[in-house]
Amino acid sequence: MTLKASSHGQWSSKMGFILAAVGSAVGLGNIWKFPYMVGDSGGAAFVLVYLLCVFLIGMPILVAEWMIGRRGQHNPINSVVKVAEQNNRAKVWGLIGVAGTLGAWLILSFYSVIGGWALSYIGFSGAGDFSGISPEGAGELFSNFLGSPGTLLGWHTAFMALVVVIVAMGVSNGLERAAKLLMPALVLLLLVLVVYGITTPGFADAMAFMFQPDLTKLTGQTVLAALGHAFFTLSLGMGIMLAYGSYLGEDVNLLKTARTVVILDTVIALLAGMAIFPVVFTNGLDASAGPGLIFVTLPLAFGQMGAGSILGVLFFILLVFAALTSAMSLLEPVVELLEERTPMNRIGATLVAGIATWLLGIASVLSLNLWSELHLLPGMTVFDSLDYLTSKFMLPLTGLGAIVFLGWAMNQDSVLKELQLSGGQATAWQLASRYIAPIGVVIVFISSLFS
Ligand code: PFF
Ligand code: NA
C-alpha cells in the first residue's frame, strides 16, 4: 500500500510488492514472539502444529486476502463490500474489514512497546553492558528495565514517533527498499548467532527441544496459541494483506508469491529459535520465561562473543528496522480509515492514529510494572489481554471470514482461473480453501474450549 503509483495505481514492480509483504510479515513476531511461545508451550510439539497452521491454514488465507483486495481495489472494508456485491452477497461481509482495522490498532499499541525494548537494547549493547554478563546479570538488567515505567514509556514514545514520522512523510517506500538490504543482513546475523550456538554445550538439547515433538504435551490452548501465532506472523486477519492486494497487478501469481512470503517468514522464525535455545540450555535458563526471553538470552550470547557489543548493536538495529516495517503496515489501515471517513488530511490522520495508539500502549507499559495486578481478562494483565484478544481471537476469526468468503461466497470458477489452477491442483486448492483451512480454524477453537 505504500509503493503505489499515483491515484490508485499498482505496485511499481513485483519486487516492490514482495518487499512490502515480507516487510509486514517479518518482524518482532519472528524474533521476539516465536521463540518465547515455543518456550512457553513446551517446544517441538508447538513448532510442529505451528508449521501445519502456517502452511495449511495461513497460506490459503494469505492468498484469499490478496485476491479479495485485488478484486476490490479499495480499502479493506470497501474491498470486501465491493467483492461481496460482485458476487451478490450481503454487505455484512464488510465486517471482516472493520474487525481487521480494530485489530491492527490494538496490536500496534503493544507492538510499539516491544519495539521500544529493542531500541533501548541498541543502547545497552553499545554501552558495553553485555560484555561478560552473567545469566543473573542479564536477568537483572531486563527486570530493572521493566520495572521503570518512565524508561519504558520513553522508548515506546520513541518507537511510535518513528512510525508516525515514516508513515506521515510517506517515506515507507524508501524503508521497504532499504529492507532489501537489511533483511538479508538480519538473516546473516541470526546465522552468526546460530553458529555461535552450535559451539555451546546446550546445542543438542536445544535442537531436541525444538524438533523432537512430544505430542503428549499438546493441549487445546497450545494449539490455539500456534494457530494465533500463524496469523500474527503472516500479518493475517487485519485487512493488511487485503489492502496490499488492492495494489497488486494482474500479472502477479498469488500462489507462488504466497509461498515465497510464507517460507521466508518461517525460516527467519526457526533461525531465531535456533539462535535462542542453545543459550537457554547452555546457561540453565528457563525456556518458559515469556516475553523477556530474547532480551535475557541475546545479551548473554553477545556478551560472550568476540566483537559482541558491535554485533549486538547491529542486531538490535536490524530488529528495530524489521519491527518498523511491520509497524508501518499496522498503522496504515487506521490512517486510511481516518483519511477516508473524516475531513483529516494524511498528516493529521497519521498524527491522530499515532497518538491513539500511543495512548493505548501506555496501558501495556504500565501492566509490566505499576498495573501488574490489574486484570482486564481474567488473570491477564492489559498487555496479556490485548495479545490474547487479538492473536487468539480476532485474527483467526477475521481470517476465517476471509477464507469462508473466498471458498463459499465467491464464484469458484473465477477463483480457479485467477490462480491458474486446473485438474488435480484445482481439487487440492478447493480442498484446502473450502475445507481444511476453515475447518482447521473451527476445530482449534473448539478444542481450546476444553483444555
Ligand atoms: N507479522 C508481524 C510480525 O511477525 O512481527 C506483526 C504484524 C504485522 C502482525 C502486521 C499483524 C500485522 F497486521
Ligand atoms: Na512474522
TrEMBL record:
Main localization of the protein described in the UniProt heading: membrane
Cited InterPro entries: Na/ntran_symport (IPR000175), SNS_sf (IPR037272), YocR/YhdH-like (IPR047218)
GO cellular component annotations of the record: membrane
Subcellular location: Membrane
Bilayer-spanning residue ranges: 12-32, 44-64, 92-114, 152-171, 183-204, 224-249, 261-281, 310-331, 351-372, 393-411, 431-450
Domain of life: Bacteria
Topology term for the membrane: Multi-pass membrane protein
GO MF annotation terms: symporter activity
SUPFAM superfamilies: SNF-like
A Pfam family this chain is assigned to: SNF
UniProt KW keywords: Membrane, Symport, Transmembrane, Transmembrane helix, Transport
Similarity-based family: Belongs to the sodium:neurotransmitter symporter (SNF) (TC 2.A.22) family.
Name this protein carries in UniProt: Transporter
Organism: Terasakiispira papahanaumokuakeensis
